[in-house]
Amino acid sequence: MTANEDQEMELEALRSIYEGDDCFKELSPVSFQYRIGDHEDPKAFLLEVSWPDTYPETAPQISLDAFFNNRICPEVKQAMMAKLEEQAEANLGTAMMYTLFEWAKENQESLMEDHQPVPSAVMQPSNSEITNFTSTSKKKEKKEQLTKSQKRKMTGRTDNRGELPRGWNWVDVVKVKHKTGGKDDD
């Protein structure tokens, strides 16, 4: 079989194996991404693999340069790349994408054992940061200050829930009609 026929067969197999898998993404017929771990997992990483024209006789191009991997320090990335390339070399001549992805899933802990999250300028805020932000923004909103006499008048007008009755600021139509008179007063 030629390299293109091998690639077509492997592509078909990958599509059927990973159909419906949110971790797998086909970027093009010769380029793929696979997320190892959950989004929230600090040890999760995105493995990007591209096939050269002579694949599977030559090793695929493996990359960890995706934006998802920005929190992984360069030393850990280099160690991971070395181990992944070693696996690719061991499987030369055969369809290895499934094997490579599964090996990475099984060895995620050992691949990321030295991982310390790198602080990044662009990171998603945690839930505590979000609530802290909303609480500070609520503190900045000031309500209109009322005098004591305004407050007394307000309590006289409110119902048991502290709400003003409907139409509390309407003009008393009956009083106005009484003072001005109606159309029938000729």
Automatic annotation (TrEMBL):
Gene3D superfamilies hit by this protein: Ubiquitin Conjugating Enzyme
Pfam families: RWD (PF05773)
Biased composition (Polar residues): 123-133
Source organism of this protein record: Anguilla anguilla
RWD domain boundaries: 9-111
Region (Disordered): 118-167
The protein's name in its UniProt record: RWD domain-containing protein
